[in-house]
Design brief:
Blueprint (H helix, E strand, L loop, with lengths): L9 E6 L4 E6 L5 E3 L7 H8 L9 H18 L6 E4 L7 H7 L4 E4 L14 E7 L8 H9 L2 E10 L7 H5 L11 E2 L2 H10 L2 E6 L4 E6 L1
Parallel strand pairs: 4-5, 4-6, 6-7
Antiparallel strand pairs: 1-2, 2-3, 3-8, 7-10, 9-10
């Protein structure tokens, strides 16, 4: 199977414990679950319904504050409006962005389904813990670029793997059945380039800041 991001050949490896199959791109390092094992829509949502993220959870709020802190100085002067794409059932990030003086729209395919972004463009789009759930990440990023203008920023969060298949099979992050695609900084860089964007910086752990070229 070819890579969903860069169309390069992939190698395949099995998870014998959970009886699933993954594909690993030899070029951009993207690892993705074979489509035959992806959950149906209702089963996917039932997993998200267990999440309990809110402004009352100090640890979760600090987690998102750390995310914003990583790139805020890069976007502060140019961000007049924002979109949190994949906001979840209890939007928190948009509140933290608004506290910084930036109006913020929200969208989530399960919990905030109105596509408020249609017909709009944004200076900043955030997407935290979303891209690992996507079966077609390139299509989603291309969609988001249509709502940015040249020089706008896109901040992503998704825990990076270390590009080792043996380590991957022992990795807790991929055991969430809704996590179906996994990135490294190189993956994000290649994904950005295929969508007309540029990777500005990353923290080598989970955060990447892109700009529309």
């Amino acid at each position: 199977m070819d890579c969903k991001i860069c169309n390069s050949p992939t190698t395949s490896f099995e998870d014998l414990k959970f009886q699933t199959l993954y594909h690993h791109c030899t070029n951009c390092q993207y690892i993705f679950l074979d489509p035959s094992y992806i959950l149906e829509h209702d089963d996917e949502k039932s997993q998200y319904d267990f999440h309990n993220n809110s402004l009352q959870d100090a640890g979760y709020v600090q987690f998102l504050e750390n995310f914003l802190h990583f790139f805020w100085e890069d976007v502060r002067k140019t961000s007049k409006n924002a979109l949190d794409f994949g906001s979840g059932p209890g939007p928190v990030l948009d509140t933290l962005i608004k506290r910084r003086g930036v109006p913020c729209d929200i969208y989530d395919k399960f919990y905030q389904q109105e596509q408020i972004f249609v017909g709009k463009s944004y200076d900043l789009i955030t997407s935290t813990e979303v891209f690992e759930h996507l079966s077609e990440p390139k299509e989603t990023l291309l969609l988001l670029t249509k709502h940015l203008h040249v020089g706008s920023h896109l901040a992503l969060m998704s825990l990076f793997h270390n590009n080792n298949e043996a380590d991957f099979l022992q990795w807790w992050y991929r055991r969430d059945p809704t996590h179906i695609g996994f990135f490294t900084p190189k993956t994000v860089e290649v994904l950005a380039l295929t969508c007309g964007m540029r990777l500005l910086k990353h923290d080598n752990k989970r955060i990447a800041l892109l700009t529309l070229a």
